[in-house]
Every structure is written in structure tokens, then in C-alpha cells.
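Fig. S4 source data, part A: sequence.
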Amino acid sequence: MSHKKCPFGATATRRFGFMSSFALLLPAAGKSTRFGGPRNKVLEFLGEQRVIAHAMVPFLARADLAKVVIACADPAELSPMLPVDARIECCPGGPSRAHSVWEALRRVPTDVEWVAVHDAARPLVSPGLIDQTLKAARQYGAAVPALAVALTIKQAQGPLPAVVQRTIPRQALWAMQTPQIMRRTDLLDAFEKCPIPLDQVTDDVQLLELADRAVWLVPGEERNLKVTTAVDMVLAKYWMSKSAE
């Protein structure tokens, strides 16, 4: 992979103007168990770049990005594999996703108003999706891209086999994606007041919900998939090939 700084110039400045800056938080301390560890899925190559590099590039191209903090298992191992950019910092992650986000959040400068939490294993996020999510967050306070749930969802007490308790109406269900964007101070406050153990928090804006703050959904993108299993990597390669056509 080529270690080059992302270009910034008059064009980017004109596009984003003097809008308030934001920081990107990338939790990347997971063990990639479902991917077939001990390989770290975010360090796998997708084309000529690693998965985590793909996840960062559309953000690094923005003039309003002030900081990138990556919470990972081994900062010394990861740092040499990343694009060269003065805004990038690595820090040790925690035992759960929420703990890692917390560690990264504490390293964001206090003059940065917004934070975007993005899965390091979502390598195909588009500039347009970042634009619309950030715009909605700045308008409403917090925004997340989401996709309608296509499958029928049954509620039951596992493990299976188990009796069905009810069918949940899917027209009211939405599958969350990232980036999840919110005010830095709101997320800090939500962490400090979180009423449940952090290892029970599975979604970043869930913290805001627990603090009675509104979270708005915007349309997600099917290609913005998260690499969880080896099959997801095959799908990511497919979407990349479609983009190149």
C-alpha cells in the first residue's frame, strides 16, 4: 500500500467552507472471531489497501475532518500499516466496543464539536453517505444511516430450539450502519450517565437513547457492508468491482 498524505486544497475548502470540524473514531480492538481469527479482519487486504484504510480514505479526503482516533489492540503494530496523515492517532482499545469508543473519545480535542463513530470493518462507505449523515447530525443533533429490515423477525428465548413468543412488525425495524455522528459533548455526557454496563451497549447512539436524546435515521447504502465473516469479504470485493465498472 502506498503511504501518501491525502490532498487538501482550495477545492476542498470551498466545498466544506467554515463548517464546524469533526473527529473520526474507529473502534478496531475486536478479535475477529467470526471472521476466523486470529487474523484481524481490518488488516486484511481488499484490493491494494487494507480494510481499515478503505474505511478511512473517504473521511481523510475531507477538509472538515480534524482528528482520527483508532482504538486498537496493538497501536505499535497497527500504526505502520495506516496512511500517513498527521491527524491519525492510535490508542489502546477496551474489552468491548463501547469501552474502545470511550478510550478514543477521550482523546478528541475539546474544540472539536462533532464525532463520527465508524466501523473499521466497513470499507465501502461513500462520500455521499458521509455528507448526508453529517448534514442530518448538524441539523438534528445525532444521525445514523440505516437500512430497512427485509427478513421476518421472531422473538424467542434462546438457545434454540425454542418456542416463538411473537412476530415483530418489520416495517418499524431498521438495521444500523455507520458512521454514527453526534456532538462530542453529548456523547461524553451519555457515557458518564450510562445506566447499564458498557459491555451491554451494542450501538454507539444507544448511549444517547439511554440519555433521552433524540437520534435520527437517514437512508443507508447496501454497499456499506460490515466485514464480519469471510463471506462478507467476498461481497465487498463484488461491490468494489461494480464501482469500477
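Fig. S4 source data, part B ends here. Residues 22 and 77 are 26 Å apart (CA to CA).
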